[in-house]
Amino acid sequence: MLAAGAAYRFCWRTTCVWRLGSCRGSPRRLRSSCPSPDTDNVKPLDGVKILDLTRVLAGPFSTMNLGDLGAEVIKVERPGAGDDTRTWGPPFVGLESIYFLSVNRNKKSISVNIKHPKGRQIIRELAAVCDVLVENYVPGKLSEMGLGYEDLKEVAPHIIYCSITGYGQTGPMSARAGYDAVASAISGLLHITGPEDGDPVRPGVAMTDLATGLFATGSILAGLLQRHRTGRGLHIDCNLLSSQAFRTKDGYLVVGAGNDQHFVTMCKVLNLPSLLGDPRYRTNALRVQNRAELVALLSARFAEEMTRTWLSRFEGSGIPYGPINSMQEVFAEPQVLHNGLIMEMDHPTAGKISVPGPAVRYSGFTMAEPKPPPLLGQHTVEVLKTSLGYDDSTIGDLLRAGVVTQPKSNEQFP
User: Fold this and answer.
1) How far apart are CA 9 and CA 18, in angstroms?
2) What spatial distance separates the first Cα and last Cα of the chain, rounded to whole Å?
3) What is the pLDDT of residue 13?
4) How far is Cα of residue 54 from the mean position of the Cα atoms in its chain?
């Protein structure tokens, strides 16, 4: 029995009740009436620890949302440089990038060199005492360091490990780095944005990143609930598919050179060595200040070749890139098909239909066979019977009185 009036908190790692810092009782569901010293000010994720290995936008946006809900977020950053967005500006507030400030509240920053064996050991030790790990490295990169899901679940079988990538853990595009604008291009968003008969237009905010961050937040919460039921952690695969656009000879290409090394690599791919020695483009801040001149130079070069030529040259470069696909091209894209983003089903009146599939995959379970969107009132009788226990006589009366309805083809009652 639990002593009345004692201070308790929920332990997500062991699915039990903690009292005064000690685990008491066997794993079981926590009652919603669990006492709390201050129930008027308890946040949903109080006591939950997040190990945040993400940078830029989708991942940090997700972990910031979790922090807003009360989770303790430990943000792991590279020594010296930190999150890429610390230098993304102007604008700055003093020395701080507004971009970074906007998506990193409610976090603790720890600077760790995970390329060093002792740095990797720190991450393993943190994973063992955290509930959730969120990362957005290129698939396989952390596994090479012994920090992938299969590695960490050995020391942290409870861990909810959420991977945010450009295109998914497997498939023909999985090894590419992913940026919002590139995913927006490949997914067809840029193709349908802007004036009719005009050039593709990038949305004013990073919609793909933000949407993926929200998907990640929801999937992490679902993962915590799943662990509450099973006692086990799981791996979540969340990606942007599920930068500036340049006109080529026959279409458009999006390239995301988001840091200084990417810019150097892009200039080499484009065979524009003169840009590397130009002091106007030495840093990201300078490139922003001199953007008009730089874009004009890059645009002229991209227009000299066909889209497929540039796709071939950028392959393996490490730079996020991709074509702007039409809707028809989106649903023929090999990575879209590989990720199962198209679901087919038989609809009772429309016949066989195809709809966008779920944006997230889980290691602990698979999605059920999809059911088609329902007809109006298709399940009226079923719900009244199974959820409310109504008998046939009562349901018949309700149908005849017009209180509830169902499709003609479903009618069982005179």
Assistant:
1) 5
2) 56
3) 41
4) 11
263 band by pLDDT with thresholds 50, 70 and 90: very high
Q: How far apart are CA 108 and CA 64, in angstroms?
A: 11
Q: Which residues contact 317 (CB under 8 A, 6 or more apart)?
A: 265, 266, 269
Kindly report the pTM of this predicted structure: 0.61
Spot the catalytic one: 52, 209, 278, 346: 209
Q: Is 209 a catalytic residue?
A: yes
The secondary structure element, H or E, covering residue 327 is: helix 327-330
Residues in the chain: 414
Q: Which long-range contacts (CB under 8 A, 24 or more apart) does 222-230 make?
A: 222/362, 223/132, 223/160, 223/162, 223/362, 223/364, 224/12, 224/48, 224/131, 224/132, 224/160, 226/362, 226/364, 226/365, 227/12, 227/15, 227/158, 227/160, 228/12, 228/15, 228/29, 228/30, 230/364
Query: What is the per-residue pLDDT across 279-334, written as a single tens digit (0 to 9) for each?
Result: 999 988 889 889 889 989 999 999 999 999 999 999 888 887 888 776 677 677 77
The β-bridge relationship of strands 342-347 and 132-135 is unpaired
Rounded to 5°, angle at Cα 367 from 364 and 373: 155
72-93 burial by CB neighbour count: b if 16+ within 10 A, else e?
Answer: bbbbbbeeeebbbbbbbbeebe
Could you check whether the bond before residue 91 is cis, i.e. omega within 30 degrees of 0? yes
User: Which whole number is the average pLDDT over 394-410?
Assistant: 82
276-292: pLDDT as tens digits: 989 999 988 889 889 88
CB–CB of 83/77 below 8 Å? yes
Alpha-carbon span 281 to 231, nearest angstrom: 52
Q: How large a percentage of the chain has pLDDT more than 90?
A: 30
Strands of 179-274 (E only): list them: 234-239, 244-247, 252-255
Mean per-residue pLDDT over the chain, rounded: 79
DSSP annotation of 200 reads -
For residue 251, the 8-state DSSP code is S
pLDDT at 16: 40
Which structure tokens are listed for 230?
């099973």
**Left if phi > 0, otherwise alpha if psi is -120 to 50, otherwise beta: which for 280?**
alpha
Task: Give the span between the Cα atoms of 54 and 258, in whole angstroms.
Answer: 15
> What pLDDT is stored for residue 40 in this prediction?
67
Distance CA 359, CA 162 (A): 13
Strands 321-323 and 342-347, by their bridges, are unpaired
